[in-house]
Write a structure and sequence with these properties.
- The protein is mainly alpha-helical and about 200 residues long.
- About 50% of the residues lie in helices and about 10% in strands.
- The protein has helices spanning about 20-55, 60-80, 95-105, 105-120, 165-170, 175-185, 185-195, and strands spanning about 125-130, 135-140, 155-160.
- The protein has a 3-stranded antiparallel β-sheet.
- A hairpin with a 5-residue loop joins β1 (about 125-130) and β2 (about 135-140).
- α1 (about 20-55) runs antiparallel to α2.
- It is globular, with a radius of gyration of 17 Å.
- The two termini are about 30 Å apart.
- The chain binds manganese (III) ion (MN3).
- Manganese (III) ion binds near residues 76, 159, 161 and 163.
Length: about 200
């Protein structure tokens, strides 16, 4: 199995200022995301070693690490690319149609997305996911791996672990979520994922 690698940021660390400060982006990507990449690789290596040694005493621990660190790596990879300088606004095309059909309007969807993300208990993510029939759901992912739906693909994720916002926003998670949704969401990328992943 090929080792996971830290994907480069798709923009300079200060590109999301003033909504997302350069110091947080630098640490979040270069330290936190990197730690999940390394943790995932370690877990995969430990499971390979367990197979080689025919000693499966530790598989529960390392299997949990695959889900936690691997989930962290994959969600952060989605996160960086579903942000961009000068983002926000609204989606277009078939994604806009699907949101309108299912949520009534983009304004209602937007309210639910912010409320759901703000209400994540502890460390986790707000997410928009696409189901196997092309339907949409706004999910709360706890940690990096809990409360996901099998067969559903996250197409927009918003990190609300404290490490994602505490340097600039301290305890004001709602201000961070508002800044991300209003100014940084890359809807063109979310539209692309809606068309590209899973389901119909
Ligand atoms: Mn994070």
């Amino acid at each position: 199995m090929q080792k996971a690698v830290l994907p480069p940021l798709p923009y300079p660390v200060d590109a999301l200022e003033p909504f997302y400060d350069a110091k947080t982006v630098e640490l979040h990507h270069g330290k936190h995301h990197l730690a999940y990449v390394n943790g995932f690789n370690t877990a995969i290596e430990k499971l390979a070693a367990a197979r080689a040694a025919a000693d499966f005493a530790s598989v529960k621990h390392w299997s949990r690490e695959v889900a936690f660190a691997g989930g962290g790596h994959l969600l952060h990879s989605l996160f960086w690319t579903n942000l961009k300088p000068g983002g926000g606004g609204e989606p277009h095309g078939v994604l806009a149609d699907a949101i309108g059909e299912q949520f009534g309007s983009f304004a209602v969807f937007d309210k639910q997305l912010r409320a759901t993300t703000n209400a994540v208990e502890g460390s986790g993510w707000g997410a928009l996911a696409k189901g196997p029939g092309g339907e949409l759901a706004i999910l709360q992912i706890e940690k990096h791996q809990n409360q996901l739906l099998p067969g559903w693909h996250p197409i927009l994720v918003i990190d609300v672990w404290e490490h994602a916002y505490y340097l600039k926003y301290q305890n004001r998670r709602t201000e961070f979520v508002d800044a991300v949704v209003s100014h940084l969401v890359n809807w063109r990328e979310v539209e692309r994922r809606f068309g590209a992943v899973g389901g119909v």
